[in-house]
Amino acid sequence: MTTRTYSVPGISCGHCKNAIEGELAPLNDVESALVDIDAKTVTVVGEITEADVRAAVDEAGYEVASVE
Question: What percent of the chain has pLDDT over 90?
Fold first, then answer.
């Protein structure tokens, strides 16, 4: 299982957290997705590709700045 953390500077509130987690959670290759509002990061566990994570975050209305 792969764990990656993505920097998403636009995260600022609970709505952001719910929107991003809501896009990632139902995806087949995602074991878990956790948004940290204070750190402005999204940690994804699973075999999902970076491109698919970026697409899901984009669908939620946010942009991945970098992968940590």
Answer: 97
Contact 20, 62 (CB under 8 A): yes
The pTM for the full model equals 0.94
What's the CATH code, domain 2-67? 3.30.70.100
Angle at 4 between CA 61 and CA 15, to 5 degrees: 30
Partnered with residue 2 across adjacent β-strands are 46
What is the full DSSP assignment across the chain?
Answer: -EEEEEE-TT--SHHHHHHHHHHHTTSTTEEEEEEETTTTEEEEEES--HHHHHHHHHHTT----EE-
Question: Which residue in 59, 50, 47, 64 sits closest to 35, CA to CA?
Answer: 64
Question: Among residues 52, 68, 1, which one has the least CA distance to residue 36?
Answer: 68
